[in-house]
# Entry
Amino acid sequence: MAIPVDDMFKNLLTKLRSKKLLRTFRTIDSANDHSVQFSGKDVVMMASNNYFGLNVHPEVVEASCAAVKKYGVGNVASRLVVNLSIQNELEKALAAYKKKEACLVFSSGYAANVGVVSSVVGEGAIILSDELNHASIVDGCKLSKAVTCVYNHCDVAHLELLLKEHAGKKILVVTDSIFSMDGDRAPLEAIINLKKKYGFVLMVDDAHATGIIDTSFPDIDICVGTLSKTLGSQGGYVCGSRNLIDFFSNSSRSFMYSTGLNPGACGGALAALLVLEREKDLRNRLLENVVYLKAGLSKIGLRVEGGYQILTLSTESNEKTMRCQEILEREGVFVTGIRKPSVASPRLRITAMATHTRDELDTAIRAFEKIVVVLAQ
# Structure
């Protein structure tokens, strides 16, 4: 007799629970800001990708609301059916920001990566992908008809070996610029030098780099990014030549068969770009907070890895990871534990924001002191 459908999923969930891998929502009752309401109290947010706090910036909020009032809440159709002028305006602004000819906006960063990677090269081509690239890039590779080869993380020598091995074939090299779970930076200059030598198509995912490092190199053929992190909105985009963007609008299934990005997200992202270009000090404040936080954690005996705004603290096991997350929550700090198999080694992923106050960072450092004993066990 066949197992009832609900029992089948119940058994799968039981297995996840037994391995301590069941994911659950941790719900906040406020805007995702540097301080949030969680479990009835104010806690310091150190798990957000809202690095500059732009999702609550008055100009960004006002622009988002104004766009909704003018265009309505949703696009309610594929953009090949109904296209809004605000979407064109956002694409023009993003292309200018990335110093490219044109841009195409997607419903999410995930959709952008999947749509671009799966359509840019086809059968007979080779994709060379950094081993720590985001899941959306990995999924795009799986959907592509190209052969995917993974090179060791940020290992330019290994990448060159693969380039020599596949010489003469159409090759796409794809990498994150700042890696989402490790916080380190791809060796873009070295990869560009290889491009000049071997002649491949280069794609860079800037999801965590916008406003933090400048990746507007002319040798980057395809620049993918998101509106949902530094820019505080929602959606994804790809920038490149006019011909490239026209190709994606006619070939990328995640664009062609998805409802267009909603007007509120477009208006908010447009305003966020203006704020980002005007308030140059946001980046300096963020990096100053990173230095202060790393120094404070080092002083209490914790060794954190990563650079820029994403820091990682090794926890050795899934069990310790979740125990540390619980302690930090109790002490007033919202940090996310990342477990296997999402990452090779369990960790706490810690993110700083430009809008964190020194008092909030001090609160976080005192909270982290409470997990020193747990990590030493």
